[in-house]
Amino acid sequence: MAEATEIRKLVYLVTGGCGFLGEHVVRMLLQREPRLSELRVFDLHLGPWLEELKTGPVRVTAIQGDVTQAHEVAAAVAGAHVVIHTAGLVDVFGRASPETIYEVNVQGTKNVIEACVQTGTRFLVYTSSMEVVGPNIKGHPFYRGNEDTPYEAVHKHPYPCSKAQAEQLVLEANGREVHGGLPLVTCALRPTGIYGEGHQIMRDFYHQGLRLGGRLFRAIPASVEHGRVYVGNVAWMHVLVARELQRQAALLGGQVYFCYDESPYKSYEDFNMEFLGPCGLRLVETRLLVPYWLLMLLAALNALLQWLLRPLLLYAPLLNPYTLAVANTTFTVSTDKARRHFGYEPLFSWEDSRSRTIRWVRAVEGSAP
Ligand SMILES: NC(=O)c1ccc[n+]([C@@H]2O[C@H](COP(=O)([O-])OP(=O)(O)OC[C@H]3O[C@@H](n4cnc5c(N)ncnc54)[C@H](O)[C@@H]3O)[C@@H](O)[C@H]2O)c1
Ligand SMILES: CC(C)CCC[C@@H](C)[C@H]1CC[C@H]2[C@@H]3[C@H](O)C=C4C[C@@H](O)CC[C@]4(C)[C@H]3CC[C@]12C
User: Fold this and answer.
1) DSSP H/E element including 125
2) 260 catalytic, yes or no?
3) Cα-to-centroid distance, 85 and ligand 1 (Å)
4) Are 80 and 178 in contact (CB under 8 A)?
5) What is the pLDDT of residues 217-243, one digit of tens each?
6) b or e along 66-78 (b: 16 or more beta carbons within 10 Å of the residue's beta carbon)?
7) Cis peptide bond upstream of 135, omega within 30
8) What interface predicted TM-score (ipTM) does this complex get?
9) Catalytic residue among 12, 126, 159, 206
10) Name one GO cellular component term (predicted).
11) What is the C-alpha separation between 80 and 63, in angstroms, rounded?
12) CA of 246 relative to ligand 2 center, distance in Å
């Protein structure tokens, strides 16, 4: 017992800790970080599930707050040893304005960095995204690329632009002197498309399939490959890199790492069918019926409708020119940098990730869309 209290001395803060990824990071920290004494969960919207975590040996502190408010962030960061900054506005559908996306993703990240500097917090892990690299607006494929693969990263959409700016801020902050005189140590993780329990877009596709009588219609050629990664492995990589950042600051500080695991490379739709298929949906081949030019036209029409209707209502369908371009561009990652630098191995095999996700989709069945 005395040993346990001696070991438990670290305070972690997870921003966005009630989001899809954030919840998995929070739960993973509680399971796999034995040195944790307090876990602060900071989010705009707190989940009721946090209550059940408050009975364990780690003090779980729920903080309702906004990353765009510097004083709220500073108050939450003060006294934390490590910050895992996953909070972000993930919007490629035009639900939020570009200004709001920048405010949350860029200004929010600036606030987190400044809070670390002011309060003396030394270790910062940032959840970036593959989108800081690509796919670019030219639709160039990124095939089995790694962190050093040259790629023309040209963005126009506010989400990837904001993630790229925020990532750069985090990496540039590495080495800055924090309150107390020691250097800040930062790194960024770049997940590809995350899937698993709690994945809203998977839930949307599932309900859409149910509404269409158990069918989904193929829109993208099966030859376009996407890299996807299981949320449990992304969470595990955050826990591990946060730990190793403290042990190997010189090696990990200022570095970026793609998040990867053993999930197979497949088209976005074929990959989703790995879970939706066993839940009773089937993918109907419609390539001859829906040619790509027609999809582009529909996507452009959706964008026009979104703009026209904006004063009256929010029209934000899944299909728009940006999501079509991303869905239609091969982007796959093949790297071992995280393994070499901090001994990362996926915690969940593909079979395990798949069956956990299927179990979750089955539980979603019947729940309201
Ligand atoms: N989902 C993916 O496929 C994916 C892939 C790569 C990277 N990412 C990154 O991972 C992170 C988490 O994404 P997610 O998919 O879990 O999204 P999510 O929307 O489920 O979670 C984001 C969380 O941040 C919180 N948040 C938003 N604005 C906030 C604010 N102003 N102040 C405080 N909290 C705020 C939200 O309430 C939410 O709980 C994001 O930074 C995202 O860019 C996600
Ligand atoms: C043509 C349409 C019918 C299909 C639409 C699918 C589309 C909504 C999907 C395809 C690819 C998805 C993105 C990809 O998995 C990676 C990321 C990175 C992450 O940081 C945020 C989410 C995002 C952009 C996914 C969003 C949904 C996309 C575009």
Assistant:
1) strand 123-127
2) no
3) 9
4) no
5) 898 889 999 999 999 999 999 999 999
6) bbbebebbbebbe
7) yes
8) 0.97
9) 159
10) endoplasmic reticulum membrane
11) 13
12) 33
